[in-house]
From TrEMBL:
Residues annotated as signal peptide: none
The species this protein was found in: Draconibacterium sediminis
GO biological process, one term: putrescine biosynthetic process
Keywords: Hydrolase
Name of the protein: Agmatine deiminase
Length: 345
């Protein structure tokens, strides 16, 4: 691909105008079986909150079954497609603009480095295209493992990611870090890739997806998970991550405005395993930010901080305590599509 072709490509930032949000609803043949009603209620809360501002596409095993959960289906669209699980951020299409035209890029999703079965999830994007639900766009498939939660874009040519995820041996072991960076630049029209080498959350199955620890909020601002307790297992790694972020600059050489998010009190499952509660896993939509909260004392502070970052948007806290039982949170279950992609009505 020549330079002019690369420059015609752009990966929109999440804060740019959106056409719709995609989620994949829990079902009894997923890992949510033992928490199906609790998880379903959380998904309904997310979907109905988002539907106040834009369309929402709900991928489900059975439309009649899933529709019955909803009090209000205005702006909500249902489609039956088989799935293994519910993490739309990682099995959903990643949309670039090529001279303004939408291209939905379909990457291999292999269950976060072959940890979980993902054969059905890996077919969802193609099925949505084949069924005509995604319109005014073309599909481009890649023989490359990539999850949407592993990259952040400022819409202007900067990609933020982590080495722990993209260099993990069960994703793309045939490529070096430089070769992966070149692929990101080529596929997304990026000018540069900022790599974080530190930062993790206990209980995270994704190998440090960027959307769990540090988020681009606008071209000049990064919100990140801080940890100031030397007794916590995360202290060293997150302090190193903070130091790395302090060295990053915008394209013009200006240091980023860094906003520290609260560090959530430890949450554990019934077997005593620590769960990845994070306030960084918010979803930006048209007119609002959907913020995961966990019934913790840090929830209110997180809302206040996000409101200062996004003064023009409504901050909507949604209790996502049940989602971290399966090691993800709110951003992980959503995938936005820019306004150039149209949804079949």
């Amino acid at each position: 691909m020549n330079n002019s072709a690369v420059q015609s490509l752009r990966l929109p930032a999440e804060w740019e105008p959106q056409s719709f949000l995609q989620l994949t609803f829990p079902h009894c043949d997923s890992d949510w079986a033992y928490l199906l009603e609790e998880a379903s209620a959380c998904f309904v809360d997310i979907i109905e909150a988002a539907a106040r501002f834009q369309k929402v596409l709900v991928v489900c095993d059975n439309v009649k079954r899933v529709r019955a959960y909803f009090r209000n289906t205005s702006n909500v669209y249902f489609v039956e497609v088989p799935s293994n699980d519910t993490w739309a951020r990682d099995h959903g299409g990643i949309t670039v603009l090529d001279n303004g035209k939408a291209v939905v890029q379909d990457y291999i999703f292999n269950g976060w480095g072959k940890k979980f079965e993902a054969g059905l999830d890996n077919q969802i994007t193609k099925s949505l295209i084949d069924q005509g639900f995604l319109q005014q766009c073309e599909l481009k498939s890649f023989d490359f493992v990539l999850e949407g939660g592993s990259i952040e874009s400022d819409g202007r040519g900067t990609i933020l990611t982590t080495t722990d995820c993209l260099l993990e041996e069960n994703r793309n072991p045939q490529y070096t870090q430089q070769e992966i960076e070149d692929i990101l630049k080529q596929n997304f029209g990026a000018k540069r890739v900022l790599w974080l080498n530190s930062g993790y959350l206990a209980g995270d199955d994704t190998d440090s997806h960027i959307d769990t620890i540090a988020r681009l909020c606008n071209e000049n601002t990064i919100a990140y998970v801080g940890c100031n307790n030397p007794e916590d297992e995360h202290f060293g790694a997150l302090q190193k991550m903070k130091a790395e972020l302090e060295q990053f600059t915008t394209e013009d050489g200006t240091p980023y405005k860094l906003v520290e998010l609260p560090f959530a009190d430890p949450c554990f499952d019934d077997e005593g395993n620590r769960l990845p509660a994070t306030y960084a896993n918010f979803t930006i939509i048209n007119g609002a930010v959907l913020l995961p909260v966990y019934g913790l004392k840090q929830d209110a502070e997180a809302v206040d901080i996000l409101q200062r970052i996004f003064p023009e948007k409504e901050i909507i806290p949604i209790n996502c305590r049940v989602l971290i039982e399966q090691h993800g949170s709110l951003h992980c279950v959503t995938m936005q599509y820019p306004e150039a992609v149209k949804l079949k009505s």
